[in-house]
Amino acid sequence: MTRYRTKVAALLAGQGAYRKAGGYLDAFLITLIMINVVAIVLESVPELTAQYHHHFLLLEVTSVGIFAIEYLLRLWSCVEQTGDKELNTSNSRKRIKYLFSPLALIDLMAILPSLLMMFFAFDLRFLRVIRLFRIFKLTRYSRAMQLLLAAFKQEGSSLLAAFFIMSVVLIMASCGIYLLEHDVQPDKFGSIPESMWWAMATLTTVGYGDVVPITPIGRLFGGVITLLSMGMVAIPTGLLASSFAEQLRKRRDAFNEAVLHSLHDGALDEQERQHLETLRIELGLSPSEANQAIKLMTSQRAYAMYCRHCGHKL
């Protein structure tokens, strides 16, 4: 049983001898997800729903079945994907930990709405929107999305601090415009909660124009808030951009270190090349980046074998 579980884990992760088969499986699942997203969007058209109802239903049942099998297989084989720190942990605890991981929750959301529909009555529009969450399954197969999630995780506390400051500014802007415009426009700035719509549209620099100040002091206050919002919105963007670049740099450094370790004897054998290719896929690096890193590390390794003063081999 353990042998089959190891094979399933390697296939789902696209590792070792199952790297090519795992790539084909990922391509199939990505295609199925995109077909589902297109079908869910088209299903909102009443004419298409009436004409192709059975086709949409067949696609939904088939997709849910495939996604459910994938979810169960990942849950069953996840014990083979744990790190060294969890070697002494029981399989039950490993599976419970996997159940509450972000990727597992996304996989569950892909099948749960349709399964619940069999037992409970739902508004079809609500169910359709919930089913669109399947697009987040692409996170598992996109290394760029995984980098972005890692950036969110790394900068979580900084982002919370930035959003807290933005919330304070939002409340202050709502209170200020309420005091300045309430007497002139009671229908649009009748209360502080109603004023928050204008404050939110202004702070995000959207400026819908449906609610605007008309008094001179109100317009001056709105201009100040607009100028302030330009810097406020840039804070989370800058944090994510710097963290994204940092995550990419760490992955490149990890690959360079692995290449340098494999070059301890001055050359790469086939087994070492296979290991580096597997690591490249796990880190989300492109083949050109990996080849460039290997060439660079090889040249540096070869250069280090010669004395920089006399030029003789060490």
From TrEMBL:
- GO biological-process terms attached to the record: action potential
**GO terms of molecular function:** voltage-gated potassium channel activity
User: Which of UniProt's keywords are assigned here?
Assistant: Ion channel, Ion transport, Membrane, Potassium, Potassium channel, Potassium transport, Transmembrane, Transmembrane helix, Transport, Voltage-gated channel
Q: Where, by residue number, does the polypeptide cross the bilayer? A: 21-42, 54-77, 98-122, 159-180, 196-214, 220-242
Q: Where does it localize?
A: Membrane
Give any Gene Ontology cellular component: voltage-gated potassium channel complex
Q: How does it sit in the membrane?
A: Multi-pass membrane protein
| Keyword Coiled coil in annotation | no
Q: Which residues form the Ion transport domain?
A: 24-250
The protein's name: Ion transport protein
Give the source species.
Answer: Pseudoalteromonas aurantia
